[in-house]
Specification:
- This protein is of the alpha/beta class and about 525 residues long.
- The chain has four domains: about 280 residues, TIM Barrel; about 70 residues, no CATH class; about 80 residues, Double Stranded RNA Binding Domain, CATH 3.30.160; about 55 residues, Double Stranded RNA Binding Domain, CATH 3.30.160.
- It has 17 helices and 16 strands.
- Helix 6 packs across helix 7.
- The mean pLDDT is about 90.
């Protein structure tokens, strides 16, 4: 059977710490999930907050050609008040064609949380599901804490799932809600359930033991054909099963077909888009879609990758929309330099002695605190300078920064620079929000007179890292700057015991890079 993909980024994913998204963001993510080909999008819990209720109103105005919208909620609170239960009424009012309803399948929860007998809990699940099915909805039953419940009392857990099926649920999603199960347990339990039920069996795994992806794969191997997860694995506590990991494993490693045909070359961009909408920094080490997923640093690795990438890559990164990267560092060999030069369109001399000397030069800089894996523009400037391809666009002959503040919180920063261009010296001052901002403004102010193309260059990000923390206030610092214009972004680095000098190094490299490229 084909795998049905169920995304709960907009519901379970938003329960993750630090994840907050607006209605607009939720609707934009819905559009992208539909474009990618997710079968079911769980939009939220309409009975829990006004934002989710508004989402279900507004999502009806979006034309979805691949995905169906799903609302999430719980069973009714009391078996004898099904028709008047507010939660069930809100689920029906959402107009979502699919409803996921969760119920207790671990006696521990049924007794302690709801205070119900086994018979009452069974009745509650049956009547709640039937109420929703009778309203014309497809119902997926999330068997909450199923694996823990099965291990505690298998018969109780199975009986509750049978109640949902009797009520009309066509899919039972087995939930590892606490994320504590191991793959062999998930496989054995799922296989048993698949044998006992004629409906679709699914898996909803959490990552508290770092096993969510492995548990999901194990469930599919055992016969599950409905897979739940979130983009980038966001979710409560340690997160949910990451669909960006699960989907390529299902498609590329297990050769499983999905209900909707997917273009996996859009997977990395989908991952980055969701990170951006959530204003969350991407996990660079995420499998398949992370920036570091196909990055190579060791010289021996790079030498092999240049001959055949299969030696150190489990698949072609372009298949999932990612790309191969080679990092220049103190672990680099000549292969790294040749690779980077080729990517930059730089022709290196045949003389192997040049490559060897440049590698040693880079390693000496790294020993002093420089790092180029996040500052490729600085690396390119260094290489071109060694090849005598880089002209001197300007020279800073004098720099002074004044910082003043008082106990009332007033702060003032001023930078004074003398900048020489083609024999002419420009003496200029600028103030700013802090010394680095003042320096940046003064440098641009002086150079725009000579180079108008700097008009659209701006600072995007500024990071400082203290090196050799044991040295206290005399420690070196590394400054990493990301700059951009209307078309591109680039990163540069500076290192010094003086944070202002390190910043000026990085700013100077940034402007030189822009001028060289112009």
């Amino acid at each position: 059977m084909k795998i049905e993909l169920f995304d709960t980024t907009l519901r379970d994913g938003t329960q993750g710490e630090g994840v907050n998204i607006s209605i607009h963001d939720k609707l934009e993510i819905t559009r992208r999930l539909n474009e990618f080909g997710i079968d079911i999008i769980e939009g939220g819990w309409p009975g829990s907050n006004p934002k989710d209720e508004e989402y279900f109103e507004r999502v009806q105005n979006i034309k979805l050609n691949k995905s169906k919208i799903c609302a999430f909620g719980s069973t009714a609170r009391y078996p004898d008040r099904i028709d008047t239960d507010n939660n069930l009424q809100k689920l029906v009012a959402s107009n979502a064609p699919i409803i996921t309803i969760f119920g207790k399948t671990w006696r521990f929860h049924s007794e302690k949380t709801l205070g119900l007998t086994d018979e009452q809990n069974e009745e509650l699940i049956y009547k709640s599901v039937k109420f929703l099915v009778d309203s014309g909805r497809r119902v997926i039953f999330d068997a909450e804490h199923f694996y823990d419940g099965y291990k505690d009392d298998a018969q109780f857990a199975i009986t509750m799932c049978k109640a949902a099926v009797k009520g009309g649920a066509d899919t039972i999603a087995l939930c590892d809600t606490n994320g504590g199960s191991l793959p062999h347990e998930v496989f054995d339990i799922t296989e048993d359930i698949v044998k006992q039920f004629d409906v679709v069996i699914g898996i909803h795994a959490h990552n508290d033991s770092g096993m969510a992806a492995a548990n999901t794969i194990a469930a599919v191997q055992a016969g599950a054909t409905h897979v739940q997860g979130t983009i980038n694995g966001v979710g409560e506590r340690c997160g949910n099963s990451d669909l960006c990991t699960i989907i390529p494993n299902l498609k590329l490693k297990m050769n499983r077909e999905t209900v909707t045909e997917l273009d996996l070359t859009n997977l990395t961009s989908l991952s980055n888009f969701v990170y951006e909408m959530m204003n969350v920094s991407p996990n660079t080490r995420s499998p398949f879609v992370g920036k570091s997923a196909f990055a190579h640093k060791g010289g021996i690795h790079v030498s092999s990758v240049l001959k055949d990438s299969r030696m150190y890559e489990h698949l072609d990164p372009t298949v999932v929309g990612n790309r191969q990267r080679v990092i220049v560092s103190d672990l680099s060999g000549q292969s790294n330099i040749r690779y980077k030069a080729a990517k930059l369109g730089i022709e290196l001399p045949e003389d192997k002695e040049f490559n060897k000397k440049f590698v040693l030069f880079l390693k000496d800089l790294e020993y002093k605190g420089f790092q180029f894996d996040g500052a490729e523009a600085s690396f390119e400037m260094l290489l071109r300078n060694e090849l005598n391809e880089l002209k001197t666009f300007f020279k800073i002959t004098y720099a002074k920064v004044n910082v003043m503040f008082n106990n009332e919180g007033m702060e003032y920063s001023e930078a004074v620079l003398k900048v020489e261009v083609n024999g002419e010296t420009e003496h200029i001052a600028a103030d700013g929000h802090g010394p680095v901002n003042a320096l940046d403004k003064a440098l641009h102010k002086a150079l725009r007179i000579f180079y108008p193309e700097l008009e659209d260059v701006h600072l995007i990000d500024y990071k400082v890292r203290v090196l050799g923390e044991g040295d206290g206030t005399s420690a070196k610092v590394r400054v990493l700057i990301e700059s951009g214009d209307s078309k591109n972004t680039w990163s540069t680095v500076g290192v010094s015991e003086n944070i202002i000098q390190a910043s000026l190094q990085a700013l100077t490299d940034s402007i030189n890079y822009k001028l060289f490229k112009s």
